[in-house]
Structures are given as C-alpha cells and as structure tokens.
Write a structure and sequence with these properties.
This protein has 11 helices and 13 strands. With 418 residues, it is an alpha/beta fold. Strands 6, 7, 8, 9, 10, 11, 12 and 13 form an 8-stranded mixed beta sheet that branches. It has a 5-stranded parallel beta sheet with strand order 2-1-3-4-5, with helices on both faces. Helix 7 links the parallel strand 9 and strand 10. The longest helix has 18 residues.
Length: 418
C-alpha cells in the first residue's frame, strides 16, 4: 500500500515497495498442517497500524472495521459462547513494537500492517510465536514468497493481479496495440511485465515501452510516442502526474491512457483542461455497500474514508471462522483453517468450494452441517491459496471527465487458480 495524491471513499488496495525480507525461523507450513487444540478459550484479535507518515490516515477505517467485525461476531455468539476480544492498538509504536505488545497481550491473530514494507518486520516476530498475520492492505508482489512458516495471509490482491484488467481495458477501447510507460522500481517493473504478458495473450500487439525515474519522464514518453501505440498503459506512483503531462506533450492523452492503481488520483487543475478526458484507471477492491458504510459510521461517526475497511472486516471474520472450524483459538489452529473457511482448496480436509456464505452467523450454520464453507465477505470472494494470497481480485474501474477527476464506472475481476 502507498498513499496517492487523493483518495475517494473506496476500499482501495494501492501499491507499496517491498523493502525487506523476513528472517523467520519457523519451519513447515502452518497453512496446510494439522494442529492440536492449545488455546485458552478466548479469541483475542490484535491490530498493527501505521504509526506515522502518509498511511496513518488509514488507521481509522481499519480500526472501525475491526470493531464492527468483533461486534457482529459477538452478536452471533462469539467464539464458543465467549466474546471475542479486540486488543488495544498502539499506533504510536513502530511495527516491531506493536507486534511485541500484542504478543504480550496474548493475541491469537493479528490484522495488519497497512504498508507492504512493514510486513516482514511483523511476520518475523509473530511467526516465531506461531501467531498468524492477515494484512488487509499489503499488495507488493514480492510478498507472495515471504518466509513466514505459513503464518502470513492477505485479503488484498497482489499488484500484478491488475495486469490482465489493464490489458482488457486497453482492448475494450478498440486498441490493437499498446505500450507500457512504467516508473522504475519493483512495482513498475513487476506490473509492466504482467501487463505485457496479459496483452500478448489477449492478442494485442505490444510495442516498445519505456521506464522512467520520478520527475524525468520526458524522454520515455517521447520514445513511446514514436512507437505510435493505440493505447498507453501508465504504471506509476509518485511520478504519475509528471508522466501524464509528458505523455500529453508527446501527443498521447485522453481515452488512449489506461492507468494502474498507483497512478489513480484526482488531478483536477494539476493537468491541463481535458488532458485525461476518457482516460481510465483501475483500483483494487470494490466500492463498499451503502449498508456496510452505514454500519461503519455507527462505530465511528467521524469516519470520512473507508479504504481497506472491507478487507479488514473480512480478515477479522475469517480468523473467527477459522477458530470456529478448529474449535480452538490458538494461532496454529487459526492458520491451519483459514484456507478452508475462505473457500480455498489447498488445506487438508478442504473439499471443493461450496456455495458462499456471506456473514459470520451464516457461515457458523454451514460449519454445523459440515467442515467446508466458503466465506465471501464485504470485499468479495477470497479463496486463499497455498501462499495465503487471495485467488480472485475485484477491481473498480474509474473514468476521467473533462475536469481530470475520476468517477466509478465499472468493476472487473481477475484471478488465478487456487
């Protein structure tokens, strides 16, 4: 996750750079190994929030969603008849400090962090204690291979899931050829490779693309203009506005532009009039329902952003369902049952995905009838795979008007076999 220039009221999963790797010493793969009951009977949920910086504004929607999920779970009977506890959050501490504090408070499962670059620090500490971590916002592609002993999951889609959708949007405009202009770095390179592959598979001609450094996109934009593509896919983050300006200077603007989530923003007067008219952008996640937003406001009436709220709500609910399936609140039991309750098929004892159940209460009823349920929550289908990644990604499509600001115009899905 990273913060764009502006946010709309949307459960968004934006990109981040994977800065570190984990050094967990936990062996095996808790996602697919059986576990003996060892909990104390009380399911405790912790949150790792961003302590400072651009992402701190996302703490409020995640906290409200976690509180709402716990309320709904407890209204349905809690865990084995006892209330689920949401532990106090300590965003004033860094990621490691929060993880240690939650372990001291006997957390059985932890939700977070927001920033992908903080994942490794949290996983390193929590996985040693056999405590699963479910991030509602980590999107960096490299996290799929994060060493966690099977204790790391995420309800947000990887950045590269956008690739097929970006290619489809270009083809939908009638384009027969595309070029990819991408900001240098892991996000840009990984996603441009995914777009390129998807475009080729869809029958599009992929013309030479180019990479650029932030603030220095003129040469790259000029190079792409010379290739004369029907459409340009821009994969960028901080350098997006400058790149869009340079593409316009090179004669590429409007409906010929397709943008990745990192480039999504309200540009307004920051660009010339009508520069982006007809351009489209994708944002992982889907618009939360009006009913869900209304429920969040009962928890926090001052809430003015719901980014990652749906993914957070689903993370807490999945953890409680995993504990219910195991009839145990211990971290190992939760990790061993998350795939099964999400509708995934990579865990021992999990059969083919059944019809979705949409609430904790409804899913409990399904567990009473058999071991296999398929929770589809506020963020859509999840179906964890053996890496703890979701296998179906929902993406919202936005179209820009003459004022260079976006409005939601559709939804797309992308996925891979579980």
């Amino acid at each position: 996750m990273h913060r764009p220039a502006a946010r709309t009221v949307l459960a968004v999963s934006l990109a981040a750079v994977l800065g570190t790797t984990a050094c967990s010493e936990t062996g095996g793969n808790a996602r697919v190994e059986s576990a003996e009951a060892s909990g104390d009977g009380v399911l405790r949920v912790g949150l790792v929030l961003d302590n400072t910086g651009n992402n701190a504004f996302l703490n409020a929607p995640q906290l409200a969603a976690a509180k709402l999920a716990v309320q709904d779970i407890n209204a349905a009977g809690g865990h084995k008849g006892r209330p689920v506890e949401l532990l106090p959050a300590h965003p004033e501490q860094d990621t490691a400090g929060q993880a240690h504090a939650l372990l001291a408070a006997k957390a059985d499962v932890v939700i977070g962090p927001t920033d992908s670059s903080h994942a490794a620090a949290a996983v390193d500490i929590l996985s040693r204690a056999r405590t699963p971590l479910i991030s509602p916002a980590n999107t960096a592609a490299g996290l799929t291979g994060l060493a966690s002993g099977g204790y790391y999951f995420r309800t947000a889609a990887s950045d590269v899931a956008q690739g097929p959708v970006l290619a489809k949007l270009a083809k939908d405009t009638g384009a027969a050829s595309i070029s990819v202009l991408y900001q240098e770095g892991s996000y840009g390179k990984d996603l441009q490779a995914a777009v390129t592959e998807a475009a080729k598979q869809s029958g599009l001609s992929v013309l030479p693309g180019a990479g650029f450094k932030t603030g220095d996109a003129a040469a790259a934009a000029g190079s792409i203009a010379k290739a004369k593509p029907d459409a340009v896919v821009l994969v960028a983050r901080e350098g997006a506005q400058g790149a869009l300006a340079e593409l316009h200077n090179a004669g590429l603007s409007g409906s010929r532009i397709i943008m990745s989530d990192g480039a999504f923003a309200r540009y307004g007067s920051g660009l010339g009039a009508k520069v982006l008219e007809g351009a489209r952008a994708v944002v992982p996640g889907q618009l939360p329902s009006a009913a869900f937003q209304a429920k969040l406001l009962t928890v926090d009436p001052s809430l003015n952003d719901v980014s990652y709220a749906a993914e957070t709500y689903d993370a807490v609910t999945l953890a409680a369902l995993a504990a219910a399936r195991a009839q145990d609140d211990a971290g190992r039991s939760i990790a061993a049952n998350l795939i099964a309750v999400s509708g995934g098929t990579a865990a021992p004892g999990a059969g083919a995905a059944t019809a979705p159940c949409l609430t904790y209460k409804a899913c409990l009823g399904g567990l009473a009838a058999g071991p296999d349920i398929n929770y589809d929550g506020e963020s859509g289908p999840i179906a964890f795979d053996a890496n703890g990644d979701i296998t179906t990604a929902s993406l919202s499509v936005f179209t820009y008007g003459p004022d260079n600001n976006p409005t939601p115009t559709g939804r797309e899905t992308a996925g891979h076999p579980g």
